[in-house]
Known about the structure:
By secondary structure, this protein is α/β, with parallel strands linked by helices.
Amino acid sequence: xxxxxxxxxxxxxxxxxxxxxxxxxxxxxxxxxxxxxxxxxxxxxxxxxxxxxxxxxxxxxxxxxxxxxxxxxxxxxxxxxxxxxxxxxxxxxxxxxxxxxxxxxxxxxxxxxxxxxxxxxxxxxxxxxxxxxxxxxxxxxxxxxxxxxxxxxxxxxxxxxxxxxxxxxxxxxxxxxxxxxxxxxxxxxxxxxxxxxxxxxxxxxxxxxxxxxxxxxxxxxxxxxxxxxxxxxxxxxxxxxxxxxxxxxxxxxxxxxxxxxxxxxxxxxxxxxxxxxxxxxxxxxxxxxxxxxxxxxxxxxxxxxxxxxxxxxxxxxxxxxxxxxxx
Length: 327
Ligand code: SER
Protein backbone atom coordinates (compact mmCIF):
# COMPACT_ATOMS: atom_id res chain seq x y z
CA UNK A 1 0.00 0.00 0.00
CA UNK A 2 1.31 3.43 -0.84
CA UNK A 3 -1.32 5.57 -2.53
CA UNK A 4 -4.62 4.88 -0.85
CA UNK A 5 -8.18 6.08 -1.53
CA UNK A 6 -10.66 5.94 1.33
CA UNK A 7 -14.24 6.07 0.10
CA UNK A 8 -16.41 7.33 2.96
CA UNK A 9 -13.49 9.07 4.66
CA UNK A 10 -15.64 11.35 6.80
CA UNK A 11 -17.70 8.53 8.34
CA UNK A 12 -17.33 6.64 11.61
CA UNK A 13 -14.45 4.41 10.48
CA UNK A 14 -13.09 6.56 7.64
CA UNK A 15 -12.37 9.66 9.70
CA UNK A 16 -10.01 7.70 11.97
CA UNK A 17 -8.63 5.28 9.37
CA UNK A 18 -7.62 8.15 7.07
CA UNK A 19 -5.60 9.85 9.82
CA UNK A 20 -4.00 6.57 10.88
CA UNK A 21 -3.00 5.68 7.31
CA UNK A 22 -1.58 9.18 6.79
CA UNK A 23 0.63 8.70 9.84
CA UNK A 24 1.78 5.26 8.63
CA UNK A 25 2.30 6.21 4.95
CA UNK A 26 3.65 9.76 5.06
CA UNK A 27 5.34 9.41 1.67
CA UNK A 28 2.21 8.36 -0.21
CA UNK A 29 -1.11 9.93 -1.02
CA UNK A 30 -3.87 8.97 1.40
CA UNK A 31 -6.91 10.48 -0.29
CA UNK A 32 -10.04 11.29 1.71
CA UNK A 33 -12.98 10.45 -0.58
CA UNK A 34 -16.12 12.26 0.55
CA UNK A 35 -19.65 12.95 -0.65
CA UNK A 36 -21.27 16.38 -1.01
CA UNK A 37 -22.61 17.45 2.36
CA UNK A 38 -20.01 15.44 4.27
CA UNK A 39 -16.83 17.34 3.35
CA UNK A 40 -13.69 16.76 5.44
CA UNK A 41 -12.90 19.44 8.01
CA UNK A 42 -10.08 20.36 10.40
CA UNK A 43 -7.15 17.94 10.62
CA UNK A 44 -8.75 15.52 8.15
CA UNK A 45 -8.90 18.28 5.53
CA UNK A 46 -5.51 19.77 6.29
CA UNK A 47 -3.38 16.62 6.61
CA UNK A 48 -3.72 15.33 3.04
CA UNK A 49 -5.60 15.36 -0.26
CA UNK A 50 -9.39 15.04 -0.56
CA UNK A 51 -11.50 14.16 -3.57
CA UNK A 52 -15.26 14.09 -4.20
CA UNK A 53 -16.10 10.39 -4.54
CA UNK A 54 -19.76 9.42 -4.63
CA UNK A 55 -19.50 5.64 -4.78
CA UNK A 56 -22.63 5.41 -6.93
CA UNK A 57 -20.70 7.29 -9.65
CA UNK A 58 -17.90 5.09 -11.11
CA UNK A 59 -16.33 8.10 -12.87
CA UNK A 60 -15.61 9.71 -9.48
CA UNK A 61 -13.75 6.60 -8.30
CA UNK A 62 -11.77 6.31 -11.53
CA UNK A 63 -10.81 10.01 -11.47
CA UNK A 64 -9.47 9.81 -7.92
CA UNK A 65 -7.56 6.60 -8.68
CA UNK A 66 -5.95 8.15 -11.78
CA UNK A 67 -5.17 11.52 -10.22
CA UNK A 68 -3.39 10.05 -7.18
CA UNK A 69 -2.05 6.84 -8.74
CA UNK A 70 -4.02 4.83 -6.18
CA UNK A 71 -3.04 1.20 -5.55
CA UNK A 72 -5.39 0.38 -2.65
CA UNK A 73 -9.03 1.37 -2.08
CA UNK A 74 -10.77 1.23 1.30
CA UNK A 75 -14.47 1.10 0.48
CA UNK A 76 -16.25 2.25 3.64
CA UNK A 77 -19.47 3.59 2.10
CA UNK A 78 -22.57 1.95 3.60
CA UNK A 79 -25.82 2.58 5.45
CA UNK A 80 -25.85 0.89 8.88
CA UNK A 81 -28.40 -1.76 9.74
CA UNK A 82 -31.37 0.16 11.17
CA UNK A 83 -31.17 2.92 8.52
CA UNK A 84 -30.83 0.28 5.81
CA UNK A 85 -34.15 -1.22 6.96
CA UNK A 86 -35.78 2.20 6.53
CA UNK A 87 -34.16 2.72 3.09
CA UNK A 88 -33.47 -0.75 1.64
CA UNK A 89 -33.24 0.41 -1.98
CA UNK A 90 -30.64 3.05 -1.15
CA UNK A 91 -28.76 0.56 1.04
CA UNK A 92 -28.47 -1.81 -1.94
CA UNK A 93 -27.46 1.00 -4.31
CA UNK A 94 -24.64 2.14 -2.03
CA UNK A 95 -23.67 -1.25 -0.57
CA UNK A 96 -23.73 -3.47 -3.65
CA UNK A 97 -23.93 -1.00 -6.54
CA UNK A 98 -21.10 0.96 -4.94
CA UNK A 99 -19.02 -2.13 -4.40
CA UNK A 100 -19.54 -3.22 -8.01
CA UNK A 101 -18.36 0.22 -9.20
CA UNK A 102 -15.32 0.02 -6.95
CA UNK A 103 -14.39 -3.51 -8.04
CA UNK A 104 -14.72 -2.60 -11.71
CA UNK A 105 -12.39 0.38 -11.31
CA UNK A 106 -10.01 -1.85 -9.30
CA UNK A 107 -10.08 -4.49 -12.04
CA UNK A 108 -9.31 -1.95 -14.76
CA UNK A 109 -6.63 -0.09 -12.84
CA UNK A 110 -5.06 -2.86 -10.74
CA UNK A 111 -6.03 -1.76 -7.22
CA UNK A 112 -6.44 -3.87 -4.07
CA UNK A 113 -9.80 -3.42 -2.32
CA UNK A 114 -10.88 -3.62 1.32
CA UNK A 115 -14.65 -3.64 1.98
CA UNK A 116 -15.80 -4.34 5.53
CA UNK A 117 -18.32 -7.05 6.16
CA UNK A 118 -20.07 -7.37 9.50
CA UNK A 119 -21.61 -9.53 12.22
CA UNK A 120 -24.75 -8.45 10.32
CA UNK A 121 -23.82 -10.87 7.52
CA UNK A 122 -25.16 -13.67 9.73
CA UNK A 123 -28.79 -14.47 10.45
CA UNK A 124 -31.14 -16.42 12.71
CA UNK A 125 -30.09 -19.83 11.33
CA UNK A 126 -26.36 -19.17 12.01
CA UNK A 127 -24.89 -20.85 15.13
CA UNK A 128 -25.01 -17.93 17.59
CA UNK A 129 -22.21 -18.76 20.01
CA UNK A 130 -18.61 -18.78 18.77
CA UNK A 131 -19.96 -18.47 15.22
CA UNK A 132 -17.48 -20.31 12.96
CA UNK A 133 -15.61 -18.65 10.08
CA UNK A 134 -17.38 -20.76 7.46
CA UNK A 135 -21.05 -21.26 8.34
CA UNK A 136 -24.63 -20.49 7.32
CA UNK A 137 -25.14 -16.87 6.23
CA UNK A 138 -28.83 -16.20 5.64
CA UNK A 139 -29.36 -12.69 7.09
CA UNK A 140 -32.85 -11.20 7.12
CA UNK A 141 -31.86 -7.53 7.00
CA UNK A 142 -30.97 -5.53 3.88
CA UNK A 143 -27.72 -4.56 5.60
CA UNK A 144 -26.86 -8.25 5.99
CA UNK A 145 -27.95 -9.08 2.44
CA UNK A 146 -25.59 -6.41 1.07
CA UNK A 147 -22.77 -7.68 3.30
CA UNK A 148 -23.04 -11.37 2.28
CA UNK A 149 -23.48 -10.41 -1.37
CA UNK A 150 -20.46 -8.14 -1.04
CA UNK A 151 -18.36 -10.98 0.39
CA UNK A 152 -19.33 -13.19 -2.56
CA UNK A 153 -18.76 -10.49 -5.17
CA UNK A 154 -15.36 -9.61 -3.69
CA UNK A 155 -14.28 -13.27 -3.69
CA UNK A 156 -15.55 -13.55 -7.28
CA UNK A 157 -13.37 -10.63 -8.42
CA UNK A 158 -10.38 -12.30 -6.73
CA UNK A 159 -10.91 -15.75 -8.33
CA UNK A 160 -12.09 -14.52 -11.71
CA UNK A 161 -9.98 -11.40 -12.28
CA UNK A 162 -7.21 -11.57 -9.67
CA UNK A 163 -8.36 -8.34 -7.95
CA UNK A 164 -6.69 -8.41 -4.52
CA UNK A 165 -9.82 -8.19 -2.37
CA UNK A 166 -9.65 -8.78 1.41
CA UNK A 167 -11.92 -7.98 4.31
CA UNK A 168 -13.02 -8.55 7.87
CA UNK A 169 -16.42 -8.95 9.52
CA UNK A 170 -16.49 -6.04 11.94
CA UNK A 171 -18.32 -6.33 15.25
CA UNK A 172 -20.06 -3.22 16.63
CA UNK A 173 -17.41 -0.49 16.62
CA UNK A 174 -16.96 1.85 19.56
CA UNK A 175 -15.12 5.16 19.40
CA UNK A 176 -15.19 8.69 20.81
CA UNK A 177 -14.30 10.46 17.53
CA UNK A 178 -17.07 10.30 14.89
CA UNK A 179 -20.43 8.90 16.01
CA UNK A 180 -21.93 5.92 14.15
CA UNK A 181 -25.51 6.52 13.01
CA UNK A 182 -28.36 4.17 12.44
CA UNK A 183 -26.69 0.95 13.60
CA UNK A 184 -27.93 -1.73 15.98
CA UNK A 185 -24.72 -1.70 18.00
CA UNK A 186 -24.72 2.13 18.42
CA UNK A 187 -26.08 1.82 21.96
CA UNK A 188 -22.62 0.70 23.10
CA UNK A 189 -21.24 4.07 21.95
CA UNK A 190 -24.17 6.21 23.15
CA UNK A 191 -23.98 4.71 26.65
CA UNK A 192 -20.53 6.27 27.20
CA UNK A 193 -21.74 9.71 26.03
CA UNK A 194 -24.58 9.53 28.59
CA UNK A 195 -22.19 8.38 31.33
CA UNK A 196 -19.77 11.33 30.92
CA UNK A 197 -22.58 13.87 30.52
CA UNK A 198 -24.28 12.65 33.72
CA UNK A 199 -27.45 11.67 31.83
CA UNK A 200 -29.55 8.58 32.44
CA UNK A 201 -29.05 6.20 29.49
CA UNK A 202 -32.12 4.80 27.76
CA UNK A 203 -31.07 1.39 26.49
CA UNK A 204 -32.86 0.26 23.28
CA UNK A 205 -31.94 -3.43 23.73
CA UNK A 206 -33.01 -5.78 26.49
CA UNK A 207 -30.76 -7.47 29.04
CA UNK A 208 -29.18 -10.66 27.70
CA UNK A 209 -28.71 -9.25 24.17
CA UNK A 210 -25.11 -10.27 23.56
CA UNK A 211 -23.16 -9.00 20.54
CA UNK A 212 -19.50 -8.79 19.62
CA UNK A 213 -18.02 -5.30 19.97
CA UNK A 214 -14.61 -3.80 19.28
CA UNK A 215 -12.74 -0.63 20.20
CA UNK A 216 -11.85 1.48 17.15
CA UNK A 217 -8.04 1.24 17.51
CA UNK A 218 -8.34 -2.54 17.14
CA UNK A 219 -10.69 -2.17 14.14
CA UNK A 220 -8.18 0.14 12.41
CA UNK A 221 -5.37 -2.30 13.20
CA UNK A 222 -7.40 -5.13 11.61
CA UNK A 223 -8.22 -3.09 8.49
CA UNK A 224 -4.54 -2.25 7.97
CA UNK A 225 -3.03 -5.62 8.93
CA UNK A 226 -5.31 -7.64 6.64
CA UNK A 227 -4.25 -5.50 3.66
CA UNK A 228 -0.58 -5.91 4.59
CA UNK A 229 -0.85 -9.64 5.26
CA UNK A 230 1.29 -12.14 3.35
CA UNK A 231 -1.11 -13.32 0.60
CA UNK A 232 0.47 -16.78 0.48
CA UNK A 233 -0.85 -17.46 4.01
CA UNK A 234 -4.46 -16.45 3.26
CA UNK A 235 -6.85 -19.37 2.83
CA UNK A 236 -9.82 -17.01 3.24
CA UNK A 237 -10.28 -13.51 1.89
CA UNK A 238 -13.85 -12.19 2.10
CA UNK A 239 -14.34 -12.02 4.97
CA UNK A 240 -12.55 -12.95 8.19
CA UNK A 241 -14.34 -13.16 11.53
CA UNK A 242 -12.56 -10.91 14.01
CA UNK A 243 -13.46 -10.50 17.68
CA UNK A 244 -12.25 -8.88 20.87
CA UNK A 245 -15.19 -8.74 23.34
CA UNK A 246 -18.81 -9.77 23.66
CA UNK A 247 -21.22 -8.22 26.16
CA UNK A 248 -24.87 -7.39 26.82
CA UNK A 249 -26.29 -4.09 28.15
CA UNK A 250 -26.05 -5.26 31.77
CA UNK A 251 -22.35 -6.06 31.49
CA UNK A 252 -21.33 -2.78 29.85
CA UNK A 253 -23.49 -0.81 32.27
CA UNK A 254 -21.91 -2.57 35.28
CA UNK A 255 -18.43 -1.88 33.86
CA UNK A 256 -19.20 1.84 33.43
CA UNK A 257 -20.53 1.97 37.02
CA UNK A 258 -17.14 0.78 38.27
CA UNK A 259 -15.74 4.12 37.03
CA UNK A 260 -18.88 6.31 37.19
CA UNK A 261 -20.75 5.06 40.29
CA UNK A 262 -23.66 7.50 39.79
CA UNK A 263 -24.33 6.21 36.24
CA UNK A 264 -27.94 5.13 35.63
CA UNK A 265 -29.53 3.14 32.83
CA UNK A 266 -33.13 2.24 32.09
CA UNK A 267 -34.63 0.14 29.32
CA UNK A 268 -36.69 1.70 26.50
CA UNK A 269 -36.75 -1.01 23.87
CA UNK A 270 -36.59 -0.35 20.15
CA UNK A 271 -38.35 -3.35 18.55
CA UNK A 272 -36.56 -2.97 15.19
CA UNK A 273 -33.09 -2.90 16.72
CA UNK A 274 -34.00 -5.71 19.14
CA UNK A 275 -35.16 -7.94 16.27
CA UNK A 276 -31.97 -7.22 14.32
CA UNK A 277 -29.75 -7.88 17.35
CA UNK A 278 -31.57 -11.14 18.12
CA UNK A 279 -30.80 -12.37 14.60
CA UNK A 280 -27.05 -11.70 14.96
CA UNK A 281 -24.41 -13.88 16.67
CA UNK A 282 -23.62 -13.52 20.37
CA UNK A 283 -19.90 -14.02 19.67
CA UNK A 284 -17.63 -14.90 16.74
CA UNK A 285 -14.83 -17.47 16.51
CA UNK A 286 -11.89 -15.56 15.00
CA UNK A 287 -9.33 -18.39 14.97
CA UNK A 288 -8.84 -18.28 11.17
CA UNK A 289 -7.81 -14.60 11.34
CA UNK A 290 -5.45 -15.44 14.20
CA UNK A 291 -3.90 -18.30 12.19
CA UNK A 292 -3.76 -16.75 8.72
CA UNK A 293 -2.58 -13.20 9.49
CA UNK A 294 -1.79 -13.16 13.23
CA UNK A 295 -4.84 -11.11 14.25
CA UNK A 296 -4.76 -10.19 17.94
CA UNK A 297 -6.82 -7.41 19.54
CA UNK A 298 -5.38 -5.15 22.24
CA UNK A 299 -8.45 -3.81 24.06
CA UNK A 300 -10.87 -5.64 26.35
CA UNK A 301 -14.00 -4.08 27.89
CA UNK A 302 -12.12 -2.68 30.86
CA UNK A 303 -9.31 -1.04 28.86
CA UNK A 304 -11.81 0.36 26.35
CA UNK A 305 -14.03 1.79 29.11
CA UNK A 306 -11.14 3.62 30.77
CA UNK A 307 -10.03 5.09 27.43
CA UNK A 308 -13.54 6.02 26.23
CA UNK A 309 -14.47 7.80 29.47
CA UNK A 310 -11.17 9.69 29.55
CA UNK A 311 -11.33 10.82 25.93
CA UNK A 312 -15.01 11.79 25.99
CA UNK A 313 -14.36 13.94 29.05
CA UNK A 314 -11.52 15.64 27.15
CA UNK A 315 -13.81 16.08 24.12
CA UNK A 316 -16.57 17.76 26.16
CA UNK A 317 -14.26 19.70 28.53
CA UNK A 318 -15.47 17.69 31.55
CA UNK A 319 -13.12 17.37 34.53
CA UNK A 320 -11.45 13.97 34.95
CA UNK A 321 -12.19 12.30 38.32
CA UNK A 322 -8.45 12.07 39.07
CA UNK A 323 -8.18 15.91 38.74
CA UNK A 324 -10.76 16.41 41.50
CA UNK A 325 -8.86 14.00 43.77
CA UNK A 326 -5.60 15.91 43.44
CA UNK A 327 -7.03 19.41 44.29
N1 SER B 1 -22.45 -1.65 13.60
C1 SER B 1 -23.26 -2.23 12.58
C2 SER B 1 -24.69 -1.97 12.83
O1 SER B 1 -25.08 -1.98 13.98
C3 SER B 1 -23.05 -3.70 12.49
O2 SER B 1 -21.90 -3.99 11.77
O3 SER B 1 -25.43 -1.77 11.92
